[in-house]
Amino acid sequence: MRTIDLFCGCGGLSLGLQQAGFDVVAGADACEKTMRVYKVNNTGHAGLTEDLSDQKRALEITKSFAPDVIAGGPPCQDYSSAGNRKEGDRAALTIGFTKLVCDVRPKLFIMENVARAEKSKTFKRAFDLFRAAGYGLTTRVLDASLCGVPQKRQRLFVVGAVGNSQGWLDPFIDARLSDEPMTVREYMNDEIGVEHYYLHPRHYGRRAVFSIDEPAPTIRSVHREPPPTYVAHPQDFVDPSSHYVRGLSTYERSRVQTFPMEFIWPKNATKAFLDHMIGNAVPVELAEFVGSCILEAIGTSERERGRRKPARLVPVDGKALKAA
Q1: What gap in Å lies between CA 8 and CA 13, rounded to an integer?
Q2: Which of 8, 10, 76, 147 is an active site residue?
Q3: The pTM is what?
Q4: Which candidate, 188, 189, 180, 174, places its Cα nearest to that of 146?
Q5: What is the rounded average pLDDT for all residues in the chain?
Q6: How many whole angstroms separate alpha carbon 243 and alpha carbon 28?
Q7: Superfamily of domain 2-179+283-307
Q8: How many CA atoms lie within 13 A of 135 on its CB side?
Q9: pLDDT tens for residues 108-167?
Q10: N or C: less crowded end of the chain, CB within 10 Å?
Q11: pLDDT value, residue 229
Q12: Taking the CA atoms of the chain, what radius of gyration do you get in angstroms?
């Protein structure tokens, strides 16, 4: 299925959908440096540096590729879990993406975002617009560690299909979800040479030392080594003052995000830029999981339609027609 990936970043969603069997024909993002990385790793299709906040231009680009599927993760920094912060310009990109989908009206769309976005006013409005355009929606917050990713990352996926019922994809997602979370050791085997590692917490007072025998916490765009003043948290697996504990390397962080070993990261890029790209990406295996569920659902639907007996044609009674 011809697919365009909007707000593609360095390409986690594109790569995962391709691995599932989608024909990605283009990716687009506003960041020129990020698109260089995307294009190096996606030489078989177009990589476009475009300001997707320009609704007219975004619509023009999308229509030019005649996609069956529009995928994308509009920037999500404006969504607040408490709901007290105003939903600003970045949240407006979600409505722009929604209107674009409704204008182009592809067979399917895939929208990805942070878990808390589901409760926002912006997403509630987007859901109304999608339904009014005839899309049956499946809305799921997925734990990536149950989808083949060694990371406890919670992400919202909204998948719409023209003419389908609400929740149409749920049975296929439920059937594929693992009963056990993927651990770092299970996924990376001998790639990582430590038993424990440090990931800087989002808030002070939280644990920061983790075992490779559990899923990693969310890989974020901020990455630091353990500070000399770090005081062990009660839930840390080991105390850094008495055990060797280091932060994950850039490569290791990309692997926890399930980018393949052969993915090409720029050697001359700053650590901050690499951390930003990796932390903001959709985990590749999570994208593949969702894509595989979609293709399985479509295949099942098509097989069921093929098994249905065609309506029996009844000879037309000409006399009856004239009498009518």
Answers
A1: 7
A2: 76
A3: 0.88
A4: 180
A5: 88
A6: 45
A7: Vaccinia Virus protein VP39 (3.40.50.150)
A8: 30
A9: 999 999 999 999 999 999 999 999 999 999 999 999 999 999 999 999 999 999 999 999
A10: C
A11: 63
A12: 23
Contact 78, 91 (CB under 8 A): yes
Domain ranges of the chain: 2-179+283-307
Place of tokens 């260089």: 36
What are the angstrom distances between the C-alpha of 89 and each of 53, 71, 126, 153, 293? Answer: 9, 20, 15, 25, 32
**With a cut of 50, which residues of the chain have pLDDT below it?**
80-84, 311-324
Question: pLDDT at position 221, please?
Answer: 87
Whole-number pLDDT of residue 237: 65
How far apart (Å, rounded) are the C-alpha atoms in residues 43 and 63?
21
Which amino acid, 109? F
Residue pair 184/216 in contact (Cβ under 8 Å)? The answer is yes
Give yes or no for a contact between 177 and 147, defined as CB atoms under 8 angstroms apart.
yes
Q: Is 8 a catalytic residue?
A: no
For residue 122, give every residue at least 6 positions away whose Cβ sits within 8 Å of its Cβ, in sequence order, or none.
79, 87, 91, 92, 94, 95
